[in-house]
Structure formats: structure tokens, C-alpha cells
Write a structure and sequence with these properties.
Mean pLDDT: 86
Order of helices and strands: HH
Structural class: mainly alpha
Distance between the termini: 169 Å
Shape: rod-shaped
Largest sheet: none
Number of helices: 2
Low-confidence stretches: none
Number of domains: 1
Helix content: over 70%
Number of strands: 0
């Protein structure tokens, strides 16, 4: 049957060890070198991807901040425009009210002047009519002082009523 020879076993062990050393020297080290290079490349790609994600997150945050600032500036501009518009409207209304009040005051003054002129004109006509009536009633012309006295009395009575 099978016999076990010590020499064959030792030679087989030596052959396996030599074969292992040759494989290790020519095959294992280059494969491990390629594996290490590939692992390093994967690590570098992961680090680059992480950095790009961080940069993208930073850019996104910057963009959102700029957008927020733009919105707040737009709101400020709109609020300033509203206030300016409101102030201009109020000023225009105040100016219009002032001009209206001035026109009303001028109209009242003009009416008062015209009324005064009309009153003087009416008084002069009434005085003339009164003098004519007095001359016809009395039949003669009184002196100038008496005429003025009667005229003033008449105008006071007529103006009072």
C-alpha cells in the first residue's frame, strides 16, 4: 500500500516552501502593490468627493445667504418706496388742502370786497334817492351839513335793518 517516505515528505515540504516563496516574490507582492495603489486611489477619490461635497454645501449656504440678503434688501427697498410714496401722497394732499384753503380764503375776501362795493353802491343810490325824496317832501334844499346829518341817520337806520 502506501508507504510514507520521510525523504519524499521533506522534499514535498521543501517544494511547497520554494513554490510559496516564488509565488510570494513574483505574484503576491505585485498583486498587493496593485491592491494598495487601488486602495489609495479609492481613498483619494473618496477624499476628493468629500471635499467637493463640503464645497457644494458651502456654496449652497453662501447662495442661500445671498438670496436671503437679496430678499431683505428687496423688502427694504419696497418699504422705502411705500414710505416715500406715502410721504409724497401726504405732501400732495397737504399742498392741495393748503391751496384749497388759500383759494377759499381769497374767494371769501373777494366776496367780502364785492359785497362791500355793492353795499357802498347801494348806499350811494339809496342816499341819492333819499335826498331826492327829502327835497320833494321838504320842498327846498337844506344846507349841506343838514343834508349829511339826515343822510347819515337814514343810512344808519337802513343799514341796521
Amino acid at each position: 500500500m502506501l508507504e510514507l517516505h520521510l525523504l519524499t515528505v521533506v522534499l514535498n515540504i521543501v517544494n511547497v516552501l520554494v513554490f510559496f516563496a516564488i509565488i510570494r516574490a513574483f505574484l503576491w507582492k505585485p498583486i498587493m502593490g496593485v491592491m494598495e495603489k487601488r486602495q489609495q486611489m479609492i481613498d483619494d477619490d473618496l477624499n476628493a468627493a468629500k471635499e467637493q461635497n463640503e464645497q457644494a454645501a458651502k456654496l449652497k449656504a453662501d447662495y442661500e445667504e445671498a438670496l436671503s440678503e437679496a430678499k431683505s434688501e428687496a423688502e427694504e427697498i419696497i418699504e422705502k418706496a411705500r414710505k416715500s410714496s406715502s410721504a409724497e401722497h401726504d405732501a400732495a394732499v397737504a399742498k392741495t388742502q393748503e391751496e384749497t384753503a388759500k383759494m377759499i380764503a381769497e374767494a371769501k375776501a373777494s366776496i367780502e370786497v364785492e359785497r362791500s362795493k355793492a353795499m357802498k353802491s347801494v348806499q350811494a343810490e339809496i342816499a341819492g334817492i333819499a335826498m331826492a325824496a327829502a327835497q320833494k317832501v321838504v320842498g327846498n334844499n337844506l344846507d349841506e351839513d343838514a343834508n349829511k346829518k339826515y343822510l347819515d341817520e337814514f343810512l344808519n337806520e337802513a343799514g341796521g335793518k
